[in-house]
Design goal:
The complex is a heterodimer. By secondary structure, chain A is α/β, with parallel strands linked by helices. Helices cover about 45% and strands about 10% of the residues of chain A. Chain A has a single domain, classed as Thiamin diphosphate (ThDP)-binding fold, Pyr/PP domains (Rossmann fold). By secondary structure, chain B is of the alpha/beta class. Helix content of chain B is about 35%, strand content about 20%. Classes of the chains: A alpha/beta, B alpha/beta. The structure holds thiamine diphosphate.
Chain lengths: ~325, ~350
């Protein structure tokens, strides 16, 4: 399974939008946090987990999904949300905590809910697994088509919820796929320190489902493997597990000094940045010119700039609004 | 504060984070059975700094970074503690208790009892609490009431570094499980903002603060303000404001919720006749109700006015600053609670 020309450009667009969104957030996040870095300050307060480098995991999978398919993501959700088609303006407004945000400012960047495209994420490690399995079950019981995809970090697969959910998905043969984004780090703890299993795809066998590992953050290979797994799930073939070797080009969260990273690691990862690699492929395979690329990138950036402007210009919620929506 | 009042000329001011680490190190030096487990507690020194420097001194055998497997390592803490070790185990944010609660409340908290006292479970479960910096509803809770409600666990909530060290020492030396809840806004980590009043003089030598002894951190005659952790500092600020109006507030730092020093609270309220409880945990079914019930049960006639509570409303914690600040306790809310109290008719007991 290889991407069509349209799919390639779609993936490139979402990758560029996602990265530029993160770069924009990074700048805005630091407003009001200098010279003293205090998370509480600035237009975007709280923790901020950026997804720079992990864009291939988002686009290679979501290229095969429709709005009606279900995705759960993690505390590092922006790239997946962008690729799943979450309303960008409302999402950025939510990240700012504005009244116009997806949840009116109640959720924040770790709690992005857009039911119109069946996207949700959360801040507790492993928490998305059960709900994605449940959505897959509900699809099956209702005879509704669609698959459910749960994103999870390689650190998070050591959480019990991951294993119980896989077993459930397999024994009930559900249309479920889990995508492990292996960025090699769980905050400061390296993968090798947290599991004796170097390749998590082998864990799939323990539950009776196919498991795959994609190396080198390769967008096309992710596209291929995910495409097959999603097709199998759509055709009643049951769940799959895919682990993707990806890279975390930012700190765990903003403000992370990353003293635990071996020297030179970040430079090496940056040299393998997936976005220039994707651009090079489009140039080689689809005749994308420098000039056309510049135009495209400018138009993608404009989409982000507009969303950011929308968020900045939106009102803060009034304090009392905190009391609304506790119950349905 | 008591600790500040005791400060000698050669003051040694530590943050709560450093005071916790110092106590753990001192206990580890004298007792080889003590070790620490948790996420990012090794090389990183803990996300909130309370294990900083420990791996350098004790190595990765006794300062163990764990996988993100709270169910397993919380259960493992129970097993190791029942087998001759003494554990300090970190749950990074108290909000994460959900993934390991069975190990905590059905095992850690009950095994001493189930075994008729024949099994000891010396575990200190240290965990961060509190919000105020827009970390959203899965990273900002206090949940004091959740833990204090369950029999079998002692619950410690320090408000300053002096207490943090002495209470940690007592926690490690205790043969029962202790939940040690430190507030992020008091840790002395600049990136979380920090309450300066929590960084106080800490003696270098090891010392233990007994459980179940509240501290009267400010003396007064007109109203009793009771809290723990961050609420103590808010109470002290409110007391300053009230003093400007000629009202003398007494502020009580409970320091431990289990055991709870009901006598100190009662004696104070018996003197002042008025009670305000501050709690950053959810209002209903929690600390604030417990303290008021303590007075009502013992002798309701000491009250000159209806007690007030300044507590978190019964809502999940919102992300947006405007909404979160609206919901959090603060000194102004305490002052208004006092004004409300003045408006309530003085009761007459027949
Ligand atoms: C149950 C639970 N435990 C711990 C945490 C704290 N925490 C947040 S992110 C993280 C590391 C996650 O690593 P990984 O799953 O590899 O994802 P990454 O951050 O690398 O994207 C940890 C330990 C949490 N949010 N929830």
């Amino acid at each position: 399974m290889t991407p069509t020309r349209d799919q390639k450009f779609w993936m490139y667009e979402k990758m560029v939008i996602s990265r530029y969104l993160e770069e924009s957030i990074e700048k805005i996040y630091l407003e009001g946090k200098k010279p003293i870095f205090n998370m509480a300050n600035g237009p975007i307060p709280g923790e901020m987990h950026l997804s720079n480098g992990q864009e291939p995991c988002a686009v290679g999978v979501c290229a095969h999904l429709k709005p009606s398919d279900v995705v759960t993501s993690t505390h590092r959700p922006h790239h997946v949300a962008v690729a799943k088609g979450v309303d960008l303006k409302k999402m950025v407004a939510e990240i700012f905590g504005k009244r116009t945000g997806l949840s009116g400012g109640r959720g924040g960047h770790m709690h992005i809910f857009d039911p119109s495209v069946n996207f949700a994420c959360s801040g507790i490690i492993g928490q998305g697994m059960g709900p994605a399995v449940g959505a897959a079950l509900s699809r099956k019981m209702q005879g509704k088509d669609g698959v459910a995809v749960a994103y999870i970090g390689e650190g998070a697969v050591n959480q019990g919820a991951f294993h119980e959910a896989l077993n459930l998905a397999a024994v009930w043969k559900l249309p479920f796929i889990t995508i492990i984004e292996d960025n090699a780090w769980g905050i400061s703890v390296a993968k090798a320190q947290s599991t004796a299993v170097p390749d998590n795809s082998v864990r799939a066998q323990a539950y009776g489902m196919p498991g795959y590992q994609v190396r080198n953050n390769d967008t096309y290979e992710i596209f291929r493997v995910a495409g097959e797994a999603i097709e199998r799930a759509r055709n009643g073939g049951g769940p799959s597990l895919i682990e993707i070797e990806t890279s975390r080009l930012a700190g765990h969260f903003m403000g992370d000094a990353e003293g635990y990273r071996p020297k030179g690691e970040l430079q090496a990862l940056r040299a393998r940045d997936p976005i220039p690699a994707m651009r090079a492929r489009l140039m080689a395979e689809e005749g994308l010119s420098e000039a056309d690329d510049a135009m495209l990138v400018a138009s993608y950036r404009a989409i982000v700039d507009e969303a950011v402007a929308f968020a900045r210009n939106s009102e803060d919620p009034a304090g009392e609004e905190a009391l609304q929506h506790v119950f349905a | 504060m008591t600790a500040q009042a005791a400060a000698p000329a050669n003051e040694r001011r530590l943050t709560i984070a450093r005071a916790m680490a110092e106590s753990i190190a001192q206990e580890m030096r004298t007792d080889p059975s003590v070790f620490v487990m948790g996420e990012d507690i090794g090389q990183l020194g803990g996300v909130f700094g309370n294990t900083r420097g420990l791996i350098e001194e004790f190595g990765s055998e006794r300062i163990r970074d764990t996988p993100i497997s709270e169910t397993a390592f919380m259960g493992a803490a129970v097993g190791a503690a029942s087998d001759g070790m003494r554990l300090v185990v970190e749950l990074m944010f108290v909000d994460f208790f959900g993934v390991c609660f069975d190990a905590i409340y059905n095992s850690m908290a009950k095994n001493v009892y189930f075994s008729g006292g024949n099994v000891k479970v010396p575990v200190v479960l240290m965990t961060s609490t509190g919000g105020g910096y827009s970390d959203g509803g899965q990273h900002s809770q206090c949940l004091y009431g959740t833990f204090a409600h369950l029999p079998g666990m002692k619950v410690v909530v320090p408000s300053n570094a002096y207490d943090a060290k002495g209470l940690m020492t007592s926690s490690i030396r205790d043969d029962s499980p202790v939940i040690y809840m430190f507030h992020k806004g008091l840790q002395g980590m600049g990136w979380l903002g920090t309450e300066p009043g929590a960084t106080v003089h800490v003696p270098e030598e090891a010392y233990a603060i007994p459980f179940g002894k509240a501290a009267v951190v400010r003396k007064g005659t007109d109203v009793t303000i009771v809290s723990v952790g961050m609420g103590v500092h808010q109470g002290l600020k409110a007391a300053e404001k009230l003093a400007a109006e000629g009202v003398q507030a007494e502020v009580i730092d409970l320091r431990t919720l289990v055991p709870l020093d009901r006598d100190t609270v009662f004696d104070s309220v018996a003197k002042t006749g008025r009670l305000i409880v501050i709690d950053e945990d959810y209002k209903s079914y929690g600390l604030s109700g417990e303290i008021i019930a303590t007075i009502a049960e013992r002798d309701i006639s000491v009250l000159k006015a209806s007690p007030q509570r300044v507590a978190y409303p019964d809502i999940p914690i919102p992300f947006a600053r405007s909404m979160e600040q609206y919901a959090l306790p603060n000194a102004d809310k305490i002052v208004s609670a006092f004004r409300n109290m003045k408006r309530t008719r003085t009761w007459r007991w027949l």
